Structure formats: structure tokens, C-alpha cells
């Protein structure tokens, strides 16, 4: 089996009797409570509801292991230590000792990368010394782009997108039942008022770099993310896509498609049911 190194992700280990409560009180998602659970999506939000960090969380051994993009790793580590206060929890930055990988096939000890209705494969964690034979991450990014999954750092910067913008409400990355967490008021308001206008859309036939604007007529609807084999995921204003077949990137026609898990459609003003 082939394991693909996700070289731009940094792992953090949360251990101790209060580790689960600490994370559950701060991040958006359903924090796993056992090794039997699939890895779960999460996001750390600003008080204004913007994503500061996001990734997956899973149990391994006696601790929770979270990954975040390298561009926000230092800030995430700093904020989580601040939120820890008197909690009996240890937070370790493992960028020097462990690596995150991806496999299309099940690997012993790995956890399923399942985000609600979207299943990507398997999340693999190993010490650096055991990752010398891992391949690059092109296969991983091709798979997650085909599934319509956005990643901070690859597709959008920190403090730029809301949780609904990247579909976390559909991909089980938001727990709407648990108590308060940072940014919850904004998330709840977007859900109940149906104000999510920006959503993930798969764009094909791109001959331009990441960050290029997607235009519909004379108006821009958003920007494409990381491009792999001419495909990317973009956070687009659905209400501006009145004709999905009449859009361009860098002046050239491209094709749009919605992720299989999408519960929204083009031309929507809101985006919530």
C-alpha cells in the first residue's frame, strides 16, 4: 500500500484528563472520544466567526491528535495554550517528531478520513523515522479536490472564510448541539437565518494559478484554490452563478460542478434549507 506524505500539515497532541473537554469547548466539531471513532473535522474560529485553523481530530493511544496547516500552526498552538488556562491538559507541537499521511487503502492503526457524507481514505500518523518511503501528496490533493473538500492554506488564508463557506455544516465539522465555543453565535446565526451565500464548488478546465478569480459576466464570484490537473475547489457566491456554463477563469471558460454531498444549488441567495 502507498502512503502519501501531507508535508504541509503539523500535528498536535492533546493529552490529560481535560484534553477532550478543552477541545470540545473551543472548536466547532464533534470531538472524537475513542479510537473507534473516525477522524472528525474541526475548526478554531475567531469571535467574528472566521476560520483561524482547521483540520481533523482523532484518538490514538491515550490522546487526541489534531492537524493544522503549517501556515497557522504557530498561531493555533499559541491560542490553544491560552485557552487551556487551568485545564489538566498537555499540548505538544509534534512537527519535529511526527508526520501526517494519507492512504487510499486501510492501514493498520490508521483512522478513516470521513467528513459526514464525504469519505476520502485513511489518516495515517507515524514518527518521522518511519516515513522515509512515503510518496508526495499529489494523490491526496487530487482526491480531496474531486470530493469538493477545501483546505486552509491551500485554498484560502486564515481569518478569511466562515465555517459555512467551506461546508463544515454539511461535512459534520460543526456540532450544533454542544455548548458554547468561540464564534458559535455567528455559526448559529448563519444556520438559522440561511445567510450562507458562499459555498464550495468544483472547477475544472483551469489554466491559471491558485487564487485566480472566477468571473460570471462582468462580476467576480470567488477565487479558485490549489490547482491539480486543471481542477480546484473554489468558494463561490452562489447567487452570482446564474448560468454555470458561462463562467471563466483568467478569461478562459471553465466548468463548474457541485460536490456529491452538496445540499445547495447555484443561484441560491441563502444556501440553507
From TrEMBL:
It holds the Pfam family Beta-barrel_CAF17_C. This is CAF17 C-terminal domain-containing protein. Residues 197-263 form the CAF17 C-terminal domain. Keywords: Transit peptide. Gene3D superfamilies: Probable tRNA modification gtpase trme, domain 1. It comes from Devosia elaeis. GO terms for biological process: iron-sulfur cluster assembly. InterPro entries: CAF17_C, TrmE/GcvT-like, YgfZ/GCV_T_CS, YgfZ/GcvT.
Amino acid at each position: 500500500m502507498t502512503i502519501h506524505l501531507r508535508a504541509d500539515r503539523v500535528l498536535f497532541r492533546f493529552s490529560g484528563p481535560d484534553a477532550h473537554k478543552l477541545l470540545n469547548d473551543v472548536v466547532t466539531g464533534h470531538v472524537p472520544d475513542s479510537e473507534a471513532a473516525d477522524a472528525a473535522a474541526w475548526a478554531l474560529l475567531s469571535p467574528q466567526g472566521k476560520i483561524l485553523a482547521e483540520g481533523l481530530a482523532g484518538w490514538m493511544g491515550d490522546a487526541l491528535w489534531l492537524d493544522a496547516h503549517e501556515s497557522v500552526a504557530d498561531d493555533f498552538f499559541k491560542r490553544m495554550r491560552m485557552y487551556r488556562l487551568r485545564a489538566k491538559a498537555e499540548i505538544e507541537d509534534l512537527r519535529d517528531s511526527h508526520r501526517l499521511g494519507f492512504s487510499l487503502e486501510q492501514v493498520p492503526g490508521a483512522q478513516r478520513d470521513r467528513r459526514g457524507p464525504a469519505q476520502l481514505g485513511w489518516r495515517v500518523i507515524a514518527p518521522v523515522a518511519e516515513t522515509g518511503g512515503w510518496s508526495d501528496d499529489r494523490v491526496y490533493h487530487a482526491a480531496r479536490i474531486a470530493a469538493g473538500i477545501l483546505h486552509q492554506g491551500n485554498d484560502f488564508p486564515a481569518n478569511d472564510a466562515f465555517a459555512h463557506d467551506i461546508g463544515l455544516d454539511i461535512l459534520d465539522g460543526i456540532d450544533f448541539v454542544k455548548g458554547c465555543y468561540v464564534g458559535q453565535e455567528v455559526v448559529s446565526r448563519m444556520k438559522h437565518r440561511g445567510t450562507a451565500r458562499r459555498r464550495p464548488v468544483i472547477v475544472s478546465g483551469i489554466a491559471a494559478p491558485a487564487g485566480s478569480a472566477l468571473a460570471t459576466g462582468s462580476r467576480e464570484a470567488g477565487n479558485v484554490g490549489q490547482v491539480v490537473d486543471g481542477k480546484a475547489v473554489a468558494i463561490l457566491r452562489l447567487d452570482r452563478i446564474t448560468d454555470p456554463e458561462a463562467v471563466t477563469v483568467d478569461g478562459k471558460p471553465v466548468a463548474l460542478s457541485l460536490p456529491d454531498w452538496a445540499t445547495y444549488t447555484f443561484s441560491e441567495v441563502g444556501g440553507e434549507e
